[in-house]
Amino acid sequence: MTNWHEVDNNAKTWINEAAERIRASFPKTLDIQTKSNPNDLVTNIDKETEQFFIGKINATYPEHKILGEEGYGDKLNKHAGVVWIIDPIDGTMNFIHQQRNFAISIGIYENGVGVIGLIYDVVHNELYHAVKGKGAYLNDKKIPDLEKVPVSNAIVGISPSWVVENKRFDYKLLSNLVKDIRGTRSYGSAALEMAYVATGRIDAYISLRLAPWDIAGGAVIIKELGGLVTTLTGEELDFLTAGPVFVSKPGLHEQILTNYLQPENL
Ligand code: IPD
Ligand code: CA
Ligand code: CA
């Protein structure tokens, strides 16, 4: 039987250590490389941070699996047992250009179900965390459950890329939504945008393509607060493959799905 209390404590200790190492890197020159395209960036610190977590997890929990963005973990095609889903730096472009607005994101899942979610805003020293069934917290402060909000009062996290012509989606679905809501925000870190939905700073977050490590930690926190994390058609995510993601307060989720994300609403 997994001692989840101990896993949670260890994860928090390691995330604090990793954050300290990231802060210590600020005065140093980064080694920056590109991945799938010239704007898909990775640094030596992304890689070292992932390796740091993998070293700790393997030494303490050799039976646990790891799905990490930079590929130093396991290759998984199904969820079985305990899986740590890790984004060592979510918001790498912000990390490089701004040295802020990025986070470490960790979701710990058991047989595909999220048990622990951690998002650490390294620069602001803000740890958003939840254990399934035990509430969600920002540092030591309990986060209240999410409340309903009408579309007309909603602020939605959405990248401008998704409201202009793009190869993944009929952008008019989202531009109709953008016309009706109170405002949009784009922070450049999916994990932080989920933390902001959790704390009510924004009301929903939509992306056409996110990977499991972008959202695994945030999904545990959002669900613990009564929010929803689904595909753009309202289906459950598998936390193994990349795809569209719709995070929202309750009520608003249903309104947006019904009134905006149906092809007949065009
Ligand atoms: C990215 C950020 C960004 C989102 C991208 C992600 P990364 O993660 O979360 O906000 O729009 O889709 O890939 O590459 O900085 O870890
Ligand atoms: Ca990411
Ligand atoms: Ca990353």
Automatic annotation (TrEMBL):
Keyword Amino-acid biosynthesis among UniProt keywords:
no
Output the superkingdom of the source species. Bacteria
Signal sequence, renumbered to the chain: none
UniProt binding sites for Mg(2+) 1: E69, D87, I89, D214
Q: Which UniProt keywords apply?
A: Hydrolase, Magnesium, Metal-binding
Please name the PROSITE patterns in this protein's record: IMP_1, IMP_2
E.C. no = 3.1.3.25
Name any cofactors this protein relies on: Mg(2+)
As its record notes, the protein acts as a catalyst of: a myo-inositol phosphate + H2O = myo-inositol + phosphate
- Residues given in the record as Mg(2+) 2 binding sites: D90
Q: Which PANTHER family match?
A: INOSITOL MONOPHOSPHATASE, INOSITOL-1-MONOPHOSPHATASE-RELATED
What this protein is called in its record is: inositol-phosphate phosphatase
Lineage at the top is: Bacteria, Bacillati, Bacillota, Bacilli, Bacillales
